[in-house]
Amino acid sequence: MKDMDSLWQGGPWEQPEPHFPPPPPVVIPAPRTKHHTLPPKKRRRKWWGFTLMLALIIGAVGLVALIGNMPSDSELARWFTFQVPDEKSSSTIQREVEEFVKPDLPQAQTGTGVTLTLLPQEGRPQDWAELYAQVRTSIVSIQSRGRRSYSSGTGVVLTQDGYILTNAHVIEGSLEVQVQLWNNHSYTAKLVGYDFAEDLAVLKIDAKNLTAARFGDSELLRPGDAVAAVGDPMGYSGSISEGIISGLDRDMEVDGVTMDLIQTSAPINFGNSGGALLNDRGQVIGITTIKMVSKDGDIEGLGFAIPSARVKFVADRLIAGEEIVHSAFGITVDRRHLEEGGILVLNVSANAGAAEAGLRPKDVIVAVEGRAVSDTGDLARITRSRGVGDLVDITVRRDGKLLDLTIPLVKAEG
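Now predict its structure.
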């Protein structure tokens, strides 16, 4: 593995004040002037100092304007540093999750009954030009102003009456949030709710007749499927970048918080946060949240998005005004793959409903909700879209026989 002291990652966790090179100088060409027929040498020397001073003043003003339009240091710090993982160690984060600065925004009404609907994969695959024309009006720009800085990102229209999805880190520490539509109309947003560990937030603007995005089911994705990211990278609003699904169920663990993400090769850059990851039907199957890069540029095409199944689970509860509670099976399993397939149960918590349902150590889970399973990612797909108390049907192999059990999910520890 190449020596990389650190990876930078854009997502909900930060490292304070990483080093960034100074912005490039602004070069403003001198204005064109008519040539004098016989320019006197003394006059040219007389105005030389004044012209130089004027050029420096204009350049300084231009530089200030450029810097004023760049993200602030605190916003650039939203890229966070990982220790390079190896065979003996896992990634570690340099900043505590508890350091998230809560937004101070007007509160929107909750408990309105609004929910996110995941559609089946329907229609024929279309080219990206056709799909972009359909989804462009469902993608918004978000400007967040804090006490000493501002941040920018992307959002996705959830409903026609102004519910907007974005990343929680986009609105971190904000005192005011502006949502700008594709037609440049801007609205001041209220906060419905957010969950920092999930890196999701729901905003509400006072608007009507918006174009709501169509959300697809991330559970139907396969590695190799064509996808595209739409957002505002580096302030270039409404940009689209093409890629594929590089992997599913990628665990990103930071200070004990694990995000189960979609990996994609679609280019994602600063400002894409909170934007849409589309399938080739134009459905949103993920909310972009993280990009991984190295200082020496050796890493390319490592972007991550929150699966739409998890987005629905979190967004529905935020809109309802409910706490986000992580669910679990209440069991410990062997991460190693079994030759005969399935997942070996090592331990069953005495307080979990799994024990009451009859699940035992040494049982092998071979199917969940009728779908064959082979690793812990298959179990994670269930827990990220279900809540505590939800019933899950599983099939286990015990002493060469198959048994069907129904297990209630419990609150995850930690």
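The first strand starts at residue 7 and ends at 10.
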